[in-house]
Amino acid sequence: MQKNILVAQSGGPSAAINATLAGVVLEGMRHEEIGNIYGALNGIQGVIERRLIDLKSQIKTDRQFKMLECTPSMALGSCRHKLPDYEKSPAVYEEIRKIFHEYGIGCFFYVGGNDSMDTALKLSEYFLAVNEDIRVIGLPKTIDNDLFGTDHTPGYGSAAKFIATAVAEIARDCDAYNLNSVTIVEIMGRNAGWLTAASVLPRAAGTEVPQLVYMPEVEFSLEGFLEDVRRLHAVRHTVVIAVSEGIRFADGRYVSQSEQSDHVDAFGHRYLSGAGKLLERQVANKIGCKVRSVELNILQRCSSHILSATDINEARRIGQFAVRFALQGQTGVMAGLKRISDAPYICDVVTVPIREVAGLERGFPKEWIAPSGNNLTDDVFCYLLPLIVGDVQPPTRNGIPEFFSFNKSVLSHT
Amino acid sequence: MQKNILVAQSGGPSAAINATLAGVVLEGMRHEEIGNIYGALNGIQGVIERRLIDLKSQIKTDRQFKMLECTPSMALGSCRHKLPDYEKSPAVYEEIRKIFHEYGIGCFFYVGGNDSMDTALKLSEYFLAVNEDIRVIGLPKTIDNDLFGTDHTPGYGSAAKFIATAVAEIARDCDAYNLNSVTIVEIMGRNAGWLTAASVLPRAAGTEVPQLVYMPEVEFSLEGFLEDVRRLHAVRHTVVIAVSEGIRFADGRYVSQSEQSDHVDAFGHRYLSGAGKLLERQVANKIGCKVRSVELNILQRCSSHILSATDINEARRIGQFAVRFALQGQTGVMAGLKRISDAPYICDVVTVPIREVAGLERGFPKEWIAPSGNNLTDDVFCYLLPLIVGDVQPPTRNGIPEFFSFNKSVLSHT
What we know:
Rossmann fold; four-stranded parallel sheet; seven-stranded mixed sheet; kinase (chains A, B); elongated; 13 helices; EC 2.7.1.90 (chains A, B); alpha/beta
C-alpha cells in the first residue's frame, strides 16, 4: 500500500537547505511505494496547524528543481517551535498522530539543526512507543557545522566559501592605501569557531590573510589582542583580523556583551552582534590608526550566488538517502555524512541514531588552533578545502538570482 | 620617437578599476609609438615619490590579464592626495614635470573619481601652460556613479549587481518565519542614491522587494518611516527596506549623525555609518517587532565574485580608448561612456573635457523617485538593467578567488 511522505524545515536559514528538500522530493518521486509528497509550512508548527501543501505538483521541471536548490532560506518556511516533552503535553503528540493519519503520512523528514533533531527524536520515540509505523528521519542543516554524528553539515560548505571569498576581497580592499590600518571581520558562530575557521582559506590562494584569527574556543584578552596588532604593525601596514561573534573574556562574558540586544529566541539563544565594533573602538582609542569592522552578517547563510557545488550536491544526496533509509524501515535516525578520505575527497551518507547526537554540540578541534591562540594550524585545510570545491550557476533572470516560491495555498483535507 | 606612458589609480576601491588598468596596458602594448608602460604606486603621491614600477614585464599572459581584471581594489595602490593649486605650490608641479622627463613620460592616465579628475585637470592645464607635450587623460571610476560627463561609471554596474543580489537573498532569509519582521539594508552612497537605487532590481526577477526605499535625495522623516512600516505590516509579515547611508532629516542632519565616527579624509569627507542601526532601534522601540539591520559595507565595492560582465568590459574599453585618445593628441579629457540606446544596449566611449565635469556631482534623477518619496519609479530599470548583464568567472585557486599582485619593487632610474 502506498504511503504519503511529509517534509518540513526548521531552524535558521542556510543556502543549502532547499537542496535537501529537493533531494527528498526527487527521490520520493522515484519510488512506487510513495504516494503524495507533502510539505508542512513553518516546520513542526505548520504540521500542528495542518498547514500542508502538495509538493509534487509544484516542482516538476529541471529548472524548477535547480531553482529550488539554489534558493536560500527555507522555501517551506521555518519555525523555532520546540516540541514539549511527551510527559508534559501528550495532547500535542496525539494531535500530530491524528494529523498524520488524516494525511496518510508514513514517513516524516525534518530538516534542521540541533533543535530540530530534538523534535525528530521526540516524535520518533513517541511513534515507537505507541506502536505506530511512522518513520521519522532527521536531516542535518546548519551553517554552524556544530552537529554531532556528521563530518560536516550541509550549508556549512557554502557559508565557508562565502566567508573565505569575502575575507579575500575585503583584504584587497584594505590594502589600497599606504598607511597603517586594521580591518576586523566579524563572523557568525555562537559557540564553535567552524565558520571563523573558514576565514583562513584565502591562504590556499596565495595570500597571507587574515593575519589574526580569534576563535570562541580561546579565552579572549583585550590586552593580548592590542599587543598582537602592534606587533604586526611593526612589520606591515595592513592587518586583517577574523573574529568570531562569540569570543568571550576569561570570566565567560561575551566580548559583545555591551553591544548585545535583548532578543532571546524560543531556545534561549541570545542574538549576538558587536564583537567587531567593540574591537574597532579599542583599536581607534588605544592604537589610533585607521580601523574598520565589517560584520558579514546574514549573507553568510543566504549568499546563494556563491554556492559550493560539493555542498549543494551533498545536501541533495542527504535528502535522497533519507527517503531510502525511511523506505528501508529506519526511524529515529539522522542522515549524516561520513568522510572516507580527504584526497580524493569521498564522503558517504550514513545513518546515525538521533539519540546519540541530539543536544550535543560538535566543537572545533582544539588541536587545529595554534598554540598562540590567535591563529589556526594548517590541519584545517585538509578538512575544509574539499567542502568548498565546485561552482554552481544559479538560475537568473535579468542578471538577478531567480528564486523558487511555493504556492502556499494549504491543502484542504478531511 | 617612442614615448613612455604612466598610469596610476586613486580614490576609493571598486571591483572594476583594475580592468581599466588592464585596458591601458593591453592597448599600450599594441602601439609602436609607446615604449615602456609604467605604473605609479599609490596614485599621484607615488608619482611625486618616484615609486614607479614596470607593468609590461609583469602582465604577460591571458590569465594574468584576467586575474588583474577580476582583482578588486587598486592593484597599484591608491591615495587620497589632493594636488595643491599651482599658484600655491608650483614646486610640486615642477617636480612632477622633472620626474616625467626622467622617465620619458608622454602620457599620464589617472583612474579615479571626482577628486582624481581634479588632479588630472590641474596637471593637464599645467603642462599646457608650460608648453609641455605631456598628455593627461582622466579615466572614471567610482561605485557611486556620481561623475558628470559619463552615462555611468565603471565599478557601478558590479556594485549594483552585488547590491541587487544581496537584497534578493536577504529578503528570502527574512521570509523564513511566520511573524512580523523588519529588515533594513544599509547601502553606500553619501549624497546620491545611485547605489541604493540598485536595491530595487530584484523586482526584475519576480520579487516585490524591497518594499520601501529611502534615498538621500529625499528628506527623511522618522515618523513617516514608522508609519510606512506600520501600513505595510497591516498587509504582510515581512518588510524589507533599503536605506542609503546618507539619508538626512529636514534640517540637513544625517540620520546617522549620532553614530558617526570622527574620521575625516583629506577631502573633508566624513565616514558615515549607522543609519540602519538607528532605524533598527527605532523599530524595536516604537513598533516592537523582530528587526535587523544589515550594512552591506565594503563588499559593495570589492565583491569580485559577482562582477557584471558589461561593467568589466566597459572598464577595460575605457582604458583602451584612453590610450588611443592620448595618441590622437588629446589631453585634459576624461574618457566617458555615452549611451546610444537602452535596447539593444549600446554605449560608446567618448571624450569629455575634464574642466566641464570636475568637481560636479551627478545627482540621481528626481523624476525616478516616486511621489511618495519612499520608492522608485519603473524608469530606473531601463537605465540600470543593462549595466548588470553578464557574468564573469574570475580565476580561482582551491575554490578561492586568486588575485593579481604586482611586484612592487620600485624602478631605479636616473
